[in-house]
Amino acid sequence: MSDGHGPPPETTPSGWSAEQPPPYSAPQASPWTAPGSPQQAPYGQPWGQAPQQPQGPRTPYPPQPQPGYGYMPPPPALRPGIIPLRPLGLGDLLDGTIKLIRSNPKAVLGLSAVAALLVAVPLAIGQVLLLNSMGSVLSDPDSTPADLAGFYGFLTEYGGTLLSYAVQFVVVTLLTGVLTRILGRAVFGGAITAGEAWQLVKGRIPALFGVVGLMAVIMIVPMILFVVLLVALAANTGQDGLGLLALLVIAFVILYIAYYLFFRTRFAFAAPAVVLEGRGPIDAMRRSWNLVTGSFWRVFGILLLTSVMVALVAGVLSVPFTLAGTLFGVLGVGSVATSVVSAVLIAAGTTLGSMFTYPFEAGVAGLLYADRRMRAEAFDLVLQTAAIEQQRQGWVHASADELWHPSNSANRQ
Description:
The protein is built from 12 helices and no strands.
């Protein structure tokens, strides 16, 4: 050792000086050694102990890529309008329906409010007449036979309801056609006014009424046959058969509910087929039947869930008005002003609930129709191609309405 002025000590390539040797470390088995080959005992191995063998073959790299290495997420589906152009889930259907209402609030909610008001007015008048009659009975029980007998009693109890159903038959049919046409354009991101939609739909109105009429026949015929059978049994059995008749009525109600739900699901896409595909009534119902085939329970569940949801919302909106109108009608017997206020409150509650019910049910049914075509006919490819072309042009044109024609489907039905 010098006094500090001599040459520096030699260093090894490892960075340790020659005067300060590196710390001892036992040699490791090479990862490149083949399994089963003889290993050389490491330095410092105790005498007589067998050398340790590596546990299986080793590689210098991980056997699989690290998580996320080389992963490319699938591109999102095109969404030029209210829905993504791919098969839809329940969330897509509900979200698309809400977007349909928000994208065209004047056309959708405005038309729905007019339709709901036309349906609600005769129903409200009938209920007010019935409430006035009930109030008269409460104030003077001796007036029951005179006031509620004959044709006046029938009109008081059933006239408003029957007239409301007749108006609903016409108005809701027209509304469904117009909303379906608005929906067909909104899928591509296009907006359309109520007047433009009516011009496109008015030629399909007879076919729409044909579908609704055939549905009414399918639903009413079993009820008529059962009533005739019930009257015949009641005439033959007399008082002793009342228990049997009650059981028959309960069984018929249960079976009829199943019957109604089955055919309502099977023909749920008849109206979109009439408006968007230009089919006739019978052909549209056959088209709906074919589209539902293979996915009946899914279509049934979504439609049933939608009906329950809109019924709850409509009930929450209309119940306060209906209760207030009922109280005015019962407590203010004989007062014209009270009767008018009662009718207005009942009509307002019914209108407020129905103006959300009509477009929501029509929107879900229309989007579910599009979903069934995507799944059964690869219709999403047609929609995506059209969307790309419209993005290139920068606007949604009326020719997009022709894409709904069944000739554009991969599997024509």
